[in-house]
UniProtKB/TrEMBL annotation:
InterPro entries per record: Beta-ketoacyl_synthase, Ketoacyl_synth_C, Ketoacyl_synth_N, PKS_Beta-ketoAc_synthase_dom, Thiolase-like
Family: Belongs to the thiolase-like superfamily. Beta-ketoacyl-ACP synthases family.
Keyword field: Acyltransferase, Transferase
Lineage of the species this protein comes from: Bacteria, Bacillati, Actinomycetota, Actinomycetes, Pseudonocardiales
SUPFAM superfamilies: Thiolase-like
Signal peptide interval: none
Every Ketosynthase family 3 (KS3) domain range: 1-398
GO BP field: fatty acid biosynthetic process
Pfam families for the chain: ketoacyl-synt, Ketoacyl-synt_C
One Gene Ontology term of the molecular function aspect: 3-oxoacyl-[acyl-carrier-protein] synthase activity
Protein name, entry field: Ketosynthase chain-length factor
Gene source species: Amycolatopsis vastitatis
PANTHER family, per database record: POLYKETIDE BETA-KETOACYL SYNTHASE 2-RELATED (PTHR11712:SF322), POLYKETIDE SYNTHASE-RELATED (PTHR11712)
Length: 401
């Protein structure tokens, strides 16, 4: 299968808008996690990562703003940034040779909540007709396809945090089947009251009242994650069309599913790591850094650490989780990790994991903490685990001369 090249990055993150601002903030260890301004103080979740992108979202045409959710507004804005970064004008390309694949998790929850409130408070005549499409998981894929005239293979993946990586498989397949380029990745806007209420029963969200304890993966004080919004949209192109451009290649991908709890079988993450490395045609010794899923749930951290030790040996590879600066963005989170890993390849620097002052020695990880580690990065492994048992892994390699 062809290894497409990523030529454009569109980043909307709680600690930076656009990949340059985001990268500078990430290397500096600047966090975007802060007390939530939405939905207010009556909810047990006190901290999260909010995106301050009103200037970009204001560029979404008014007609589309009223038809779509904030989650899709973020996708519009990120796609505009990605296309501009790639130097691509969709109008100049054959419409059936452009593909779109996005990931979704909570869907258009804010839009849906508003319409439900109208239904119960005012009656069915006050529910907008766009309710039927704005909440739907495929809304971002469909709206991006329509807006940019991309009528090639289109898909949506609903595998929670793993989804951003799963779009890589769809993009690679579309390009291998003849598409010139593919739009991939995901965004998330899961900070509405309805969305937060849906997240709480899973027991993975940290409800601490201390900002310093909000999100500490692989730490002895780990007690869950905090949610965030934003994500990344990326542009992948055929290698022959991207000569002289690009951040890196989508060299390998794999996905597995965890066995039924209580079955006695091991989690599927190790198999996923090994399969992605094999698919990329590299060895574990060639992997320069791992961008971890970093659940910050003790048992999940232990599972991930065990898989990394089994794959690379104790302290065998630098591991980082820059999402400690933005929160878990669910469908947008692993897409943002893809963008971050590509920036690490370009700039020869591994961004830090912040706030983890008491790493659990039982994990036996070489965790990059507090400050970046400057070293060549030619091969990066990105991991994501979605609630419900999804495991995905992507291997990125430096672009060929």
């Amino acid at each position: 299968m062809t290894a497409p090249v990523i030529t454009g990055l569109g980043v909307l993150s709680p600690n930076g808008i656009g990949h340059e601002e985001y990268w500078a903030a990430t290397l500096a260890g600047s966090t975007g996690i802060a007390p939530l301004t939405r939905p207010g103080r009556d909810y047990p979740v006190r901290f999260g990562g909010e995106v301050a992108a009103d200037d970009l979202l204001g560029k979404v045409p008014g007609r589309l703003r009223v038809q779509t959710d904030r989650w899709t507004h973020l996708a519009f804005a990120a796609a505009e940034l990605a296309l501009a970064d790639a130097g691509v004008d969709p109008a100049a390309l054959p419409e059936y040779e452009m593909a779109v694949s996005t990931a979704a998790s909570s869907g258009g929850n804010e839009f849906g909540q508003r319409e439900d409130q109208n239904l119960w408070a005012k009656g069915p005549m006050f529910v907008g007709s766009y309710q039927s499409i704005a909440w739907f998981y495929a809304a971002c894929t469909g709206q991006l396809s329509i807006r940019h005239g991309m009528r090639g293979p289109c898909s949506v993946v609903v595998t929670e945090q793993a989804g951003g990586l799963d779009t890589v498989a769809h993009a690679r397949r579309a390009i291998d089947d003849g598409a010139r380029l593919a739009v991939l990745g995901g965004t998330e806007a899961s900070l509405s009251p309805y969305a937060l209420v849906c997240q709480l029963p899973g027991g993975r969200v940290n409800t601490t009242r201390e900002a310093a304890l909000a999100y500490l993966p692989f730490d002895r004080r780990a007690a869950g994650h905090v949610p965030g919004e934003g994500g990344a949209i990326l542009i992948a192109e055929k290698a022959e069309n991207a000569r002289g451009r690009g951040y890196g290649q989508l060299a390998g991908y794999a996905a597995t599913f965890d066995p039924k709890p209580g079955s006695g079988r091991p989690p599927g993450l190790l198999r996923c790591i090994q399969a992605a490395i094999a698919d990329a045609g590299v060895t574990s010794a060639e992997v320069d850094v791992v961008f971890a899923d970093a659940a910050a749930v003790p048992e999940l951290d232990a599972e991930e650490a065990a898989a990394l030790v089994a794959a690379f040996g104790p302290h065998g590879v630098p591991v980082t989780a820059p999402k400690t600066m933005v929160g878990r963005l669910y469908a947008g989170g692993s897409a943002l990790d893809l963008a971050t890993a590509l920036l690490a390849i370009r700039h020869s620097a591994i961004p830090p994991t912040v706030g983890v002052d008491r790493p659990d020695p039982a994990h036996r990880l070489d965790l990059v903490r507090d400050r970046p580690r400057h070293q060549p990065v030619r091969t990066a492994l990105v991991l994501a685990r979605g609630a419900g048992g999804f495991n995905s892994a992507v291997v990125l390699t430096a672009p060929r001369p």
